[in-house]
Amino acid sequence: MDSLKKELEEELKLSTDDLRSHAWYHGPIGREGAEALLERDGDFLVRDTASSPGDYVLSCYWKDEPMHFKIIKVVLRPKKGYSRELFQFEGDRFDNIPALVRFHVGGRHPVSQASGAIVYHPITRSLPIRVISERQAERTGKDPQTAWDCHSGTHYRTSLRSSMLLTCYQVETVSCFRLDQFESLLLPENNRPLDPTVLTVLKELFTRSNAMTTALHILSVDCQVARIVGVTEDQKRMMGVGSGLELVTLSHGQQLRQDLLERHHLLALGVAIDILGCTGTVGQRATVLHKVILLAQALRDHAHNLYAFSAVMKALEMPQVVRLERTWRALRRNHTESAVMFEKTLKPFMIALNDGDGEEGGPLAVPYLVPLLRLMEGEEGEHTERGCQLLYNTLQAARNAALHAHSTRSTHTACSQPIPELLEGFRTEFALRLFWGQTGAAADKEKRYDKFDKILTVLSNKLEPTEEFSPEL
């Protein structure tokens, strides 16, 4: 395990021009081993060739038969003291192997004009190159450079930098949350932040909807934003993959990752406002807390939406909410079952999710994406034994989510009777405008978050001042 962790960390640091950073590169696998992995037209992989060290072979499957094409390393010495390595393939020369693969796979150029073979399904390996080679060498006694286990059995990981479906794609640089195109049913034009009239309408909407209905409306919006459902062929072509669950694992999925992190935080802020905005009695506020806990349960157990579930749990664990001691005591007294479920079931499950241990039991509508999103965006990570284990767990969870991207629980993604106003209430564009107003919504994210955190603190202190010792209502 320690060796695997080290290899994993090293591989993630490699440049995308480095052959070893791509999971379609299988190292010193033999001809027979490669053919055993190729099953359908378009399957391909790149491997070392034992007959001439330094050269490579592109192995593929086309028209019911395996094919192998030599990639020859050429060293050019145009002048004394200077040399340049190129890789020659079918008459063309490339700076590196990944560039060669991008040319043929991305542009759909036949790898051989004579055969007409086209490759577009990368066969990804299961383990880092050196780790598998060492394990095979231990069993066979062979040189690790020539040993390879093509039937490793358990799939431990696949590189996040692998081209899961190498094709032409467009790198997005603009958020999918387009405030300039957002038309609201609930917000007036040029609304001010936290408009009291709009907050009242929202509270009435939530009061009329039970936890299941609310959870399904959140799920419907989440699946659209995460591009799990409703993805057009044009969108697939632009993304280069068929689902947002795959896109977030790739380098060009940065904008979607940022959008999903933004949405996750705004969902949590919305729940916090629902609790802290209840200015009635402590008992009434405890009832709101009770309904939020039921919503978290519905998101987890019925909507199978761990992304939104974690956002609700994030709200419940915000310091401005946790400090409401009178409210939590009233919850334990008036809604004991919910209080017990929160402490004994939901909180431990959230801890397990953060440790990478909570997503057992088959495909989810929306998996717990947040650790992966933060990791890929460089927002978290610790250079410790525990941090390495969390990294490993996160990457494994991401791999599983990508593998199940086409078999998620789509039956849960639609509301039988959608309420347009309730759907809008969970749209990210709506939250941006409600929280910061028409003009403030376009401000820098960090400044917006800092300002709102101060608002939550003021609301919390107003509900239960620190020096307050009056009896509970």
Describe the structure.
Residues 134-168 and 469-473 have low confidence and may be disordered. The longest helix has 23 residues, at 254-276. With 473 residues, this protein is α+β, with helices and mostly antiparallel strands. The protein has 19 helices and six strands. The chain has helices at residues 2-12, 31-37, 97-106, 129-140, 196-208, 211-225, 233-239, 244-247, 254-276, 282-301, 306-316, 319-322, 325-334, 336-354, 370-376, 385-403, 420-425, 428-440, 445-463; strands at 43-48, 56-62, 65-79, 82-89, 92-94, 121-122. It starts with a helix and ends in a 10-residue tail after the last helix. The protein has a six-stranded mixed β-sheet with strand order 5-4-3-2-1-6. Helix 9 (254-276) crosses helix 11 (306-316). It folds into two domains: 2-140, SHC Adaptor Protein; 179-463, Ras guanine-nucleotide exchange factors catalytic domain (Son of Sevenless (SoS) protein, Chain S, domain 2), CATH 1.10.840.10.
CATH fold name of the largest domain: Son of Sevenless (SoS) protein, Chain S, domain 2
Give the class from helix and strand content and strand pairing.
Answer: alpha+beta
What's the tally of helices?
A: 19
- What's the order of the H and E elements? HHEEEEEHEHHHHHHHHHHHHHHHH
**Unreliable stretches, pLDDT < 50, 5 or more residues?**
134-168, 469-473
Q: Largest sheet, order of strands side by side?
A: 5-4-3-2-1-6
> Biggest sheet, open or closed, and with what strands and sense?
6 strands, mixed
What is the molecular shape? elongated
What is the rounded distance between the termini?
Answer: 56 Å
CATH architecture of the largest domain: Orthogonal Bundle
**Binned strand content:** 5-15%
Mean pLDDT equals 81
Text of the CATH class of the largest domain:
Mainly Alpha
Helicity level, as a percent range? 40-55%
- CATH H level of the largest domain: which superfamily? Ras guanine-nucleotide exchange factors catalytic domain
Counting DSSP E segments of at least 2 residues, the number of strands comes to 6
The radius of gyration over CA amounts to 27 Å
Our count of domains comes out at 2
